[in-house]
Design brief:
401 residues; alpha+beta; FAD/NAD(P)-binding domain; D-Amino Acid Oxidase, Chain A, domain 2; 2 domains; four-stranded mixed beta sheet; binds flavin-adenine dinucleotide
Length: 401
Amino acid sequence: MPSKIFDHIIIGAGVIGLAVARTLRHLRPDASILILDKEPDVGAHSSGRNSGVLHAGFYYTADSLKARFTVQGSRSIREFCRVKNIPVNRCGKLVVAMDEAEVQLLNELEHRGQRNGSNVRLIDAAEAREYEPGVATYKKALYSPDTASVDPLDILVALKDDLMNAGVEFVFEARFIHHQGETVITNQGEFKGGKIINCAGLYADQVARDYGFGKAYTMIPFKGLYLKYAKNKTDVTMNVYPVPNLKNPFLGVHFTKTVDGTIKIGPTAIPAFWRENYALTHRFNAGELLEILGEEARLFMGNNFGFRDLALEEMRKYDRAYFINLAQKLVPGIDPGGFGEFTRPGIRAQLLDKHRRTLVQDFVVEGDRTSIHILNAVSPAFTCAFPFADFVCREYVLKGE
Ligand SMILES: Cc1cc2nc3c(=O)[nH]c(=O)nc-3n(C[C@H](O)[C@H](O)[C@H](O)COP(=O)(O)OP(=O)(O)OC[C@H]3O[C@@H](n4cnc5c(N)ncnc54)[C@H](O)[C@@H]3O)c2cc1C
């Protein structure tokens, strides 16, 4: 039988779980908080495997949680980095157009950005080339000076250290199996808590279902591959993105400048076959394969939200030459021979709305007095983590106390 009763048990030590713990510690200094994670340390999944871009908040419609938290989130992470002496590459970003239709979409992105309080503006092609000499764009580009890059692991480690120093307890390699009343049952024994906050990323839907939530959704994991450009770090000096298809949540193959100036292209959005399908047989899970493949097959046949076209297009990116060719459209002079190997991939914990048969674009929070479930914390949830955690704590975890 568990002896200690925690006020809050957080499942998942990704950026969302850590940010929720940080806010709770701030709002309830005397509360006892436990974080459980099935991995040996922080950052094993999305939070440690992403592009590290602090987004500027111009992709999202004004009614979304993403729009509400991205600008403020980027600001607060940069402030956290300043206080902790964590490097930030303030390299900025260009979104480039290929034709007239994409110029119209750039207008839409500028409009969304302005509504969301993001510092963005349309510039002409000549000005775009002043910022990034090798870039190709049709007539206009969207310029975002505030887009920046970080090493996400730096931030996760600093958060973990702060939380440990503030008395938050961690148990790693403790996998949530199921619950019975207030007791959480893991492979490392039982833990009792007044309130459970599910921040389990790729498994958040399963944990939610164990508590009777998340019934409208199912998980479709999408794999993001990156290719490193190993030639000159100066061949691209800022983040360069294509205009995305606004009907789905992915941004298209782009150039990212990492915090140390390294250039990489990606990420892809290839449908994965199980949740942690990072490589061919990595953490193979037959049950997940059947469930996810079945769902993907139905989406493929029905071509819901253009899934068939998306899947076929994304699968082509396993072909290096094709992948590089997409990047060359943005920066034609980039040397195709300068690309090295595929680097550490990430997998998006993307939810499908089972009834509407569409990918859920925004973050989802469900729960009651005893359990709160953070679902669909997809990009840019890393950027949004601090204000989103504040929202979750005030509006859900502590509401009514
Ligand atoms: C390829 C890619 C690129 C991205 N790029 C960006 C970007 O540039 N900028 C940006 O802002 N966002 C980006 N994102 C999104 C961002 O990384 C995620 O939104 C964010 O990391 C989600 O954090 P999380 O804490 O919800 O999930 P995670 O980081 O996945 O954390 C969940 C944790 O829960 C644990 N867990 C799972 N199941 C259990 C269980 N049963 N028991 C115990 N523990 C469990 C896991 O081990 C994990 O540590 C990207 C994501 C991907 C995949």
